[in-house]
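dude i think i finally got it to work??
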Amino acid sequence: MLRLAFGFPPALTAGVSLVTAFANSVSGSVAYIRDRRADVKLALVVAASGIPASVLGAYVVRFVNARWFDVLYAAMLVIFFIDVLRRTRSDAPPPARLVLHGPERVIVDRQGHVFSYRWNVPVALACGAAMGFVSSFFGIGGGIVFVIFFISLLGMPPHIVTATSMVAMLLTTPVGAATHWYEGNIDWPFALPLAAGGIVGGQLGPRIARRISSKRLTLLIGYSVLLAAAALVARHLFPQ
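look at this
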């Protein structure tokens, strides 16, 4: 929306958006930790590589022009849309494509649901590096990378992945946002109202996730991001 409605340059878009992502992660993390669905150990490992990568992403984005930023952003959204369509064919998590030899993790949430899965440190560090860079480069917090990586490749339970990604973002986004602030990429009159909305949304999201089937909502989000991707590309194909 910052690109389409306000015409913000790429670096400013990423900086302002990341402030919102941080506010959302603060609010969402509290709710998910309270529900005991977040794998805090995994979030810490992801953050170990995600924090330095987030600094790099905030630095690199200033060298990318608006056309390439929009094209890269649109491509990422299309990948997310394809992944959403594939995963919504079934309510069950996809089978793991990567065979891991790490210890089995078992989490029992506050409602008594039991989740079991596996992950190991090298895989988590690789995800963290990608998540941190994408987070600061696009200003999205990196949750898309986390979700695609741990659900599609590792077959982890979606509820655990969603909660853990929020905690990982809580650890990585402040560093990226601070780097953007140092680079002069944050317009606070825009960022603060968006952050306030992010705090509210961070509380609503976990409540919705507990009460309804996520399939229809996920499809709605998927088609929304596909529309956004088309709009980002169209503004360069059909300039006013």
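The helical segments are 10-34, 40-60, 66-87, 121-138, 143-153, 158-182, 188-211, 214-237.
im so relieved honestly
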